[in-house]
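Exercise 4. Each item below gives a protein and its sequence. For each, produce the structure-token representation.

Item: NAC domain-containing protein (Flemingia macrophylla).
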Amino acid sequence: MADAASINLPPGFFFSPTDEELVLHFLFCKASLIPCHPNIIPELHPSQLDPWELNGKVLLSGNQYYFFSKVNENRTTENGYWKEIGITEPIILSTVDKKVGMKKYLVFHIGEAPQGTETNWVMQEYHISSSGFDTALYRSARRRRKHDQSWSKWVLCRVSEKRCEEGVNCYSDDEYESGSELSWLDEFYLRLDDDLEEIAIPN
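Answer:
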């Protein structure tokens, strides 16, 4: 586990990468054994810590925590577990319109599966798609990993807590005319459906 003291950014800099940048400049380097500068995102086994214990153990920027993990790593902690919500979102390289990765969503539940209680902690899990890296950089990386079986076994995780004001749901700016309140997760599904309709997925 990385020491928080080793995670430093120059004064005035704020870590706020796009999905595309996370895959291209961080996850790809991690998976292909290419040195990443600055190497500010540490490794972490999700089973070691509950999400509210991440502070000081991983890279924190604003209210978002970043760390690398292995694919299919145990995601059950001492007090709960991370559960996938069944949404997979493609990450498209805008310059060439190619899929370079995908993003899965997980929600932390307190208790034992499958009867756990849903919390407001959300994880975005980034996976790499090697078919989108048809470049000299990818070919060079593939030569480096010739005898390395870890390719594409790394994922990049971004964790945040959806905070709600007392008596107001997390996405209260889009109330329905019927007046019925939806959970933040229901609202998330509805908004994500709208976003996915705008994404052009290449063949």
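Check: The domain at 4-197 is CATH 2.170.150.80 (Metal Binding Protein, Guanine Nucleotide Exchange Factor; Chain A).
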